[in-house]
Amino acid sequence: MNYTEEQTRKLVEMYKAKPSMLTVEDLAIAYGKSPKSIIGKLSREGVYERAIYKNKSGELPVTKAEIVSNIAENLGLEIEHLNGLEKAPKSTLKELEAATGAQQDQEGEDHA
Fold this sequence. Notes:
Number of helices: 5
Helix content: 55-70%
Mean pLDDT: 85
Shape: rod-shaped
Structural class: mainly alpha
Order of helices and strands: HHHHH
Low-confidence stretches: 102-112
């Protein structure tokens, strides 16, 4: 079953007022549709905002390869010189990234 113009207008209005999965679920119940149907309609209307994945600590996920790349950049090295480093625990890589980034920042401040 398709959505009427009035239903579409109300769906968009309600979702824009509070864009969340809870709103999608409430709309699905109110209109007797599945959440996927509501998401599909909102997507076609150009208003659906996909949830951004965050890790357990609430941060955007970063891969080990990205962290190793940052470490290489902080040290002024080609990433090939750090082969195998991505196998280290992520917490260790983050500490190393912070330490190498902090050294760069301190050096920049000393020369300023």
